[in-house]
Amino acid sequence: MRGWFTLFIVTCLLCSPALPAESKQKQRNVEPIHRIDTQRKLVALTFDDGPDPTYTPLILETLHKAHVPATFFVLGSQADKYPQIMEWIKRAGHEIGNHGYHHYDLNKLTEQEIYDEIKRTEHSILRTTGTFAQYYRPPGGVMTHDVLNAVQLTGYDLIHWSVDPRDWSLRRTASVIANSVKKNIASGDIVLFHDGGLNQKQTLSALRELIRDLRSRGYRFVTVSQLLAAGKH
Ligand SMILES: [Zn+2]
């Protein structure tokens, strides 16, 4: 029964790939969320560009051992290639966000193409995990008018970040990545990591050290939705 229901939803979504008719009505302003204001020592770890067959499982294992929930902004193209890892992310209790399908440069896409990237990834996430993602993070953090309009039409929340250790850079060692987070972190921050890419061995080592260090300083790790909920109180 649930399978038929999911099939029904997917079919409906696939039938309406064009921008919705209400596209010209501005129903709400999409404001990118970088962090939240809170006195509570909460931080959200986020991982972009996966799932990756090598590093996502290692990162999941590290998070599991430390009992740390995180949010994975996945690419639809990777989700389709590695459905078992998607299931694993979901089963482990982490949150899944939408990072578009191809990791294209959004400066070169039209509003319709950006919308399609988001919706196509929405289908991939739904197919592989049975859940609707609620949050979108544009590749490269690109925020053009077309990106804002497309996100508004999808109804997603637009999630940016406030701490970026640039862990994708091959010149950055684990200790450089870890120190960059340690120096800059504050309550309510959203930290940007990558589980897919070129330098994720360093990310993994940095993560182990960071979890220990931030915990010893009283920080608690939460998903993006838990962080946003804390900001409303
Ligand atoms: Zn990315």
Topology of helices and strands:
Elements: H1 2-15, E1 42-48, H2 55-66, E2 71-74, H3 76-81, H4 83-91, E3 95-98, H5 111-129, E4 135-136, H6 145-154, E5 157-158, H7 174-184, E6 189-194, H8 200-216, E7 220-222, H9 224-231
Parallel strand pairs: 1-2, 1-6, 1-7, 2-3, 4-5
Helix pairs in contact: 1-5, 2-8, 5-6, 7-8
This protein binds zinc ion.
Zinc ion (ZN) binds near residues 48, 49, 99, 103 and 139.
Question: Care to describe what's here?
Answer:
- By secondary structure, this protein is α/β, with parallel strands linked by helices.
- It has one domain: TIM Barrel (Alpha-Beta Barrel), CATH 3.20.20.
- The protein is 45% helix and 12% strand.
- It has helices spanning 2-15, 55-66, 76-81, 83-91, 111-129, 145-154, 174-184, 200-216, 224-231; strands spanning 42-48, 71-74, 95-98, 135-136, 157-158, 189-194, 220-222.
- The strands form two sheets. Strands 1, 2, 3, 6 and 7 form a five-stranded parallel β-sheet that branches. Strands 4-5 form a two-stranded parallel ribbon.
- Strand 4 (135-136), helix 6 (145-154) and strand 5 (157-158) form a beta-alpha-beta unit.
- Helix 1 runs antiparallel to helix 5, helix 2 (55-66) packs parallel to helix 8 (200-216) and helix 7 runs parallel beside helix 8 (200-216).
- It starts with a helix and ends with a helix.
In short:
The protein is an alpha/beta fold. The protein is built from nine helices and seven strands; from the N terminus they run H-E-H-E-H-H-E-H-E-H-E-H-E-H-E-H.
